[in-house]
Design brief:
Order of helices and strands: HEEEEEEEHHHEEEEEE
Distance between the termini: 92 Å
CATH topology: endopeptidase fold (from Nostoc punctiforme)
Low-confidence stretches: 13-38, 91-123
Largest sheet: 6 strands, antiparallel
CATH superfamily: endopeptidase domain like (from Nostoc punctiforme)
Shape: globular
Strand order of the largest sheet: 8-13-9-10-11-12
Structural class: alpha+beta
Number of domains: 1
CATH class: Alpha Beta
Amino acid sequence: MRVRTLSSFLGSLTVLVLAATPALGATTGGAVAEVPSTSTGTTTPTTPLAPKPAIHLSPITAKSRSLAYKGPVYEKTATGEVVPYVPTAPIAPAAALTSTTGGSSTATAATATPVTTEGVTEVTETAATPQPDLLVPGSLARYVNGYAAAPMNAPASVQQVIWAANEIIGLPYIYGGGHASFISPGYDCSGTVSYALHGGSLLSAPMDSSELEAWGSHGAGRWIAVFGNAGHAYMDVAGLRLDTSAADDPSDQQGPRWRPLRPENAGYVVRHPLGL
């Protein structure tokens, strides 16, 4: 009986010692031996997620009215090659589109009719004129000799919108121009926007300013923002404004022109093409 009682006592004491060991290690600062796990599962180390790239958003407002650009300019040739842009000599009789917004003068084709008023030469084209497909590094369009150079980082459709708009720069403002057909001797505000969007394969038929209020998706896009109300429409593309109105443009020239961004765009419904 004594032997059995002693054996039971020693067994109980062993259990108490084993149970107290982890707590003793934790309270005295000692290391606690790990008990091998009988589980066959393994723990996979977690890999931190890479940060998502920032979404590009072209500006739609600006405090400065300067369009000056002195960086490199390239031209995309008919074969798709990108080469440094070398301006060609104007075809006589030619005129210079003088800009007070900081850009260089524009050499225009022989179809241009220059009219000088108070020292500012206003050029009126008689037909849409193909222009070089200009490119500049980065994500912002730049004002080059009166035209817009498309940013190299922009999607192809955005570049095509810019190059199409260049074809009608200098044409006169004609109310209703560009609505019966995309081809017109002049364009009004929404006709200008429609022509450019059509050039990027983003619009199949001309729209007036009220129709543009419901076109595309809500708000400003990453590259393009179309502003419309019942009386006017214009668009911002990669940081430049395409507009027939000279509002907030020191050049005070009417008709389709690339202009500085406005300081605000109050009073307009803002739309953009899906994905752009």
